[in-house]
Amino acid sequence: MAGPDNARKQYSEKPADDAKFSSTAAEDGLHSEVAALMDRAEATMTLAAAWTENLSRLVHLEFQRTLAAGKRIVALLLLVFFLAIALVVSLCAGLGLLGYYFFQSVYIGFGIFLLAQLLIVAAMLLSAHRLRRLLGFEETRKQAKEAIDDVTALFKQTD
What we know:
mainly alpha; 3 helices; 159 residues
């Protein structure tokens, strides 16, 4: 009787071993998937940290550029202010001097002087307008939008 019991015992233990092996293989597969997911999450966090550092550097550089452009605009507007004061004083002096001296006409002398002053003021205002385009954080906005699009695309791929 010992022989058949041993045979039955071996036969009955073998399916349990197969189930145990199959369970271990499934657990190993699950562990490898979790490990791959953790590696992917770690790589994503590394990329996010590098991107954040680069973005903060970009914000800092654009802020410096904005401050420099703002200083130039203020300097130009101060020049425009003092030029406007000089314009008023010069218009009064030019009205009498140029019109009477060259053309014996107040109107022609006044028109020439006024045109020259207006051209100078227009050139300064155009320069201030050109510098005003440098104000802002356009590149930072582009980078942030691109990063959001990349992250959105990354999550769409995993689904």
